[in-house]
Amino acid sequence: MRFILFDIGNVLVRYDHQRTMTALADLYHTDPVQLSTFYNQIGRQFGVGEITPTQVVDMLNSRFNTSHSLEEFTKAFCAGLMRDDAALAYAVALQVEDELAVGAISNTNAVHVAWLDDRAPELNEFELVIMSNEVGLRKPDPEIYELAMEILNASPAQILYVDDLAENVEAARQLGMSAILHHDWAKTRALIDAWRSS
């Protein structure tokens, strides 16, 4: 059995971080630079589940002297997310019983996980989905890849990892996985085909 593990943001689902920060800045009546600077101070904690969406909203309201609801925050915070129908369909179609399974490892947060649950149900068909906020680990920490291998009962040699960030790809390679730095699907699909036939 072999496995292909994908990142989600900007691999299986489109994500425009700047659009998200701009939407939040508009909501909290500040400029995107100030908003991004503040979010960067709490983003890691949010991404490993140390703080909840409600706490993030409270922090933003306190910092920018506003009183927005969790629903208002959620709408703005998901502004940069969009389905990639072709990528999701391709990933699901890769699965071959007893031969090849697919999974995902994502640095994310509870709000974006809820968006994915609602708008990317294809992820339910994956053999494995690890969300950073649910396991308290973030890429490129080797432990999150090791957790995937443990759950799958797989060795690094059985796994191909695909991500759009070089540090995450390098972390997978350091553990002995094959890995692809994703930029566009035409190249990535060709590299996946080459790995499958190796």
Describe what is shown at a glance.
With 198 residues, the chain is of the alpha/beta class. It is 52% helix and 16% strand.
Note down, in words, how this protein is organized:
The structure is a single chain. This protein is of the alpha/beta class and 198 residues long. The protein contains 10 helices and 7 strands. The protein has helices at 17-27, 32-47, 53-64, 70-77, 85-93, 110-119, 132-135, 142-152, 166-174, 185-196, and strands spanning 2-6, 13-15, 81-83, 100-106, 128-131, 159-163, 178-181. A 5-stranded parallel β-sheet has the order 5-4-1-6-7, sandwiched between helices. The chain has a two-stranded antiparallel ribbon with strand order 2-3. Helix 1 (17-27) packs across helix 2 (32-47). The protein is elongated. The model has no long low-confidence stretch (mean pLDDT 97).
